[in-house]
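WARN  no MSA supplied for this record, continuing single-sequence
INFO  ligand: flavin-adenine dinucleotide
INFO  echoing inputs
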Amino acid sequence: MKLMREKVLEKTGFKGPVFYREPMSRHTSYKIGGPARIFCLPQDVEDLKKALIFSHEEGIPYYIIGNGTNLLVSDEGFEGMVIKISGVFNGFQFSGEKVIAGAGTDLCHLINQAGKQGLFGWPFAVGIPGTVAGAVVMNAGSSTLHMGQHVQKVWALDCKSLEFVEMRNDDLQFQYRKSILDSGKWVVLEVELLLQREDPDKIFLRIEDLLQRRRKVQPLNYPSAGSVFRNPDNAFAGKLIEDAGCKGWTQGGAMVSPVHANFIVNFNHARAIDVGTLMARVRKEVEEKFGISLEPELKIIGNWPEELEEFLRPYKG
Ligand SMILES: Cc1cc2nc3c(=O)[nH]c(=O)nc-3n(C[C@H](O)[C@H](O)[C@H](O)COP(=O)(O)OP(=O)(O)OC[C@H]3O[C@@H](n4cnc5c(N)ncnc54)[C@H](O)[C@@H]3O)c2cc1C
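INFO  complex generated
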């Protein structure tokens, strides 16, 4: 009966692929996560509107994802509709030292294409595996440089009114790994970003150098979602975790990476509960040793066992 009601999404005229009980492990860089009740890939703005209207009318919660590289989805999965904005909404156009890029554009692809035009300017973003929208919403970057410094404008769809909105940098309230856009109220559709003109040959040497540096300091041979915890004020989460002696700790198939202590990697078919439990253990150890309470940087989705729910609830999407 439930399934029949859900099949109505196709009956709204939604053109893109729709999957039911789709394992989120297929759509996260962690390769972890139980099923999404509905998983859909809108092909255009009309499709996106149909999915949102369906979600409102059926009372089904929705969650927008890009490349799923900053997500931890529970083993139980998400009792709602996951709307993936990646693979479509991915055109881009350069104009002078600006680019207008679709939300689903792969960030690394855009950096390479910009390089060919003799445009660069986001060294911190080289190697970040997300979409343009994911990077803007999360204000992705390093400890000092971030995407928000380069955003001019964002065009988005208001998820409630389904009206288009144009937001300027000042409206977006960029902070460390945060923006007003991560409230779930809007779907980012397009972004205008500033670049800098540089010699293309130098750009590609720089890109290769930055990628090599990442390979040295990040455990890229195992699935992960990047840094697990936010850096607290005036400190580095990775350094605190290392100094607390947590490097190499394991829980099921999850491990605090011996390469970079703020990465918890999926080294052997880890479940979400393994990652969540390890996060809670690390957080407790750092708190006991240094009196600092680490906060997750990852976006957390789905229902969790009671012992983790209290810790993870404030960070849930
Ligand atoms: C190996 C590795 C290295 C990484 N290195 C870095 C790093 O150096 N710096 C850094 O900051 N991060 C890093 N990350 C984390 C991650 O790649 C970034 O946060 C990235 O910007 C997330 O983009 P995404 O498209 O995967 O977003 P997702 O993980 O899919 O989503 C992230 C958030 O953005 C929202 N979102 C996505 N698309 C839209 C949209 N169109 N409209 C509205 N909301 C949207 C989602 O709802 C969610 O809240 C790393 C991850 C990995 C796996």
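DSSP finds nine helices and 16 strands in the chain.
INFO  checksum written, moving to next record
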